[in-house]
């Protein structure tokens, strides 16, 4: 299933909620946060204690950030295929970097192999070399190549059950998301919660929704 957790107002998620998300989606974690006009990324955490130590000590407070907990549906179970992926250049699966914008995905794209070869045929020779320098492929990685080549609007033509986040200083959401206006938290799903009793989250369908609320 995976889950993407976004803090638009920069409020830190509780350790308890993060542990619940990990317990339900324990195949790796990645986090992205704003650093001025850039996005800083650290991903590839395969153990919860390593992630939470980094999150509490390094990710700044009062800064918009997003976290992805992976539950593998396509591709290998390796740090390189944790999210997010760069879409400002061809992603070469680094685990720590700074970018203009990155892509998070919750869901599964069925015909991603066909998409891979179709996108690759439109790339420059230099970009093709960058793609073939990586060790692993997944549906989400392939869609990052699509967004790099054609822009985030291409997500409208991908699987309509997926949730997508193009994260930057003005995040762009696609799909059905759960949001809480008070906290500024947005989740791609709430399946990790043991109970929705007393929940203040509202369900929204966004197709290219931009910015903060």
SS elements, strand count: 11
Termini separation: 26 Å
Largest sheet: 11 strands, antiparallel
* Domain tally: 1
Order of helices and strands: EHEEHEEEEHHHEEEE
What CATH calls the topology is Glutamine Phosphoribosylpyrophosphate, subunit 1, domain 1
Low-confidence stretches: none
What's the level 1 CATH class?
A: Alpha Beta
CATH H level, superfamily name: Aminohydrolase, N-terminal nucleophile (Ntn) domain
Total DSSP helices: 5
Instruction: Give the % helix.
Output: 10-25%
Concise description?
By secondary structure, this protein is α+β, with helices and mostly antiparallel strands. The protein contains five helices and eleven strands; from the N terminus they run βαββαββββαααββββ.
Description:
By secondary structure, the chain is of the alpha+beta class. The protein has a single domain (3-210), classed as Aminohydrolase, N-terminal nucleophile (Ntn) domain (Glutamine Phosphoribosylpyrophosphate, subunit 1, domain 1, 4-Layer Sandwich). Helix content is 23%, strand content 29%. Strands 1, 2, 3, 4, 5, 6, 7, 8, 9, 10 and 11 form an 11-stranded antiparallel sheet that branches. A hairpin with a 2-residue loop joins β2 (29-35) and β3 (38-45). The mean pLDDT is 91.
């Amino acid at each position: 299933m995976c889950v993407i957790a976004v803090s638009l107002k920069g409020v830190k998620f509780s350790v308890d909620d993060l542990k619940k998300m990990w317990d339900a989606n324990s195949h790796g974690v990645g986090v992205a946060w704003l650093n001025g006009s850039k996005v800083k990324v650290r991903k590839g955490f395969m153990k919860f204690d390593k992630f939470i130590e980094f999150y509490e000590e390094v990710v700044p407070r009062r800064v918009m950030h997003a976290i992805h907990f992976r539950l593998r549906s396509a591709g290998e179970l390796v740090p390189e295929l944790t999210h997010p992926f760069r879409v400002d250049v061809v992603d070469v699966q680094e685990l720590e970097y700074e970018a203009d914008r990155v892509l998070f995905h919750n869901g599964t794209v069925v015909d991603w192999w066909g998409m891979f070869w179709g996108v690759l045929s439109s790339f420059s020779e230099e970009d093709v070399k960058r793609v073939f320098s990586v060790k692993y492929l997944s549906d989400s990685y392939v869609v990052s190549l699509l967004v790099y080549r054609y822009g985030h609007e291409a997500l409208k033509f991908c699987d309509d059950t997926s949730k997508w986040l193009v994260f930057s200083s003005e995040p762009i959401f696609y799909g059905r998301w759960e949001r809480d206006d008070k906290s500024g938290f947005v989740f791609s799903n709430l399946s990790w919660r043991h109970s929705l009793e007393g929940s203040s989250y509202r369900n929204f369908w966004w197709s290219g929704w931009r910015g903060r609320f």
